[in-house]
Amino acid sequence: MGRGPGWQAAFAVACLAAGFLPVAVGYVPEGAARLAGSFAVPAVYLALALATRRSAAMRRYWEIPLAFFGLALFVLADRYVPGFLTADVLHSPPITGNPLASTARGTVVVALDELVLTVLAVVAVLLISRSSPASISVRRGRFGRAYVIAIVGLVAFYVLTFRALSRSRFLPVHGAVGLGRYLGLTPALLVAVLANGFLEELMFRGLLMSRLNVAFGPYLATFIQAGIFASWHIGVTYAASALVLAVLFAFPLGLIGGYLTRSSGSIIPSSLFHAGADIPIYLAFLSYTS
């Protein structure tokens, strides 16, 4: 960045904090404070991006706060727009008046709903910055090692997840999942994991990593986005130990996704690999369905 390693380190820490802030607001008790914070965070990031764009010294970095605006905009929409879905669908028993609860369709609806919200947030950022989808690696890219790793990984996760069902206590499934049921759940399972894999890769390896690269270069940008990605998983509700999930699962997955995206020039391989890694998690969701 031209301002010395100390300044770069401070900026990296600031980016890590900025990336975590949108989800940190969710830890505030429900009420006026959380509502105000949820709207204030994207507004501040957008204002900061526009102010940075007007600064001759900082103009080249203005799309970094704009990327954080996109992440915060998604969190805002996800927190308030589809609340009637996410609160009562995933790994929930049947609920009177909610036909989606405890159904495979409900899990798929949530995944597709969040995919749409992500795409809308990213499109808003691209429109503001007048950038193309290719600038955030939304393209076919180079077919090579990254694609092979991604496809092999997706298939391996699918096969090994079923093999682990009968011999591992690390898959928190509800009830027995035999081969017939596993195959029956496969269409919903694949739709859900592919949707979630793509939306998270679009945000973190596509939008965020590409913008951080301007300030930090490829290697440090990859580590920063992986750290932010991991921080978003600290508060998940589907893990017995969210911190362990963030450190041992989400952070390495963020690094692998960064590598696959950089190697191919596309988020498609990282999305496929990410989808495979999500199979055990979404199988746990779907195991609650009748």
From TrEMBL:
GO biological process: CAAX-box protein maturation; proteolysis
InterPro entries: Rce1/LyrA-like_dom (IPR003675)
Keyword terms of this UniProt record: Hydrolase, Membrane, Protease, Transmembrane, Transmembrane helix
Residue span(s) of domain CAAX prenyl protease 2/Lysostaphin resistance protein A-like: 185-278
Domain of life: Bacteria
One MF annotation (Gene Ontology) recorded for this entry: endopeptidase activity
Keyword Magnesium: no
Protein name (database record): CAAX prenyl protease-like protein
TM region(s), chain numbering: 36-52, 64-87, 107-127, 147-166, 178-199, 211-232, 238-260, 272-289
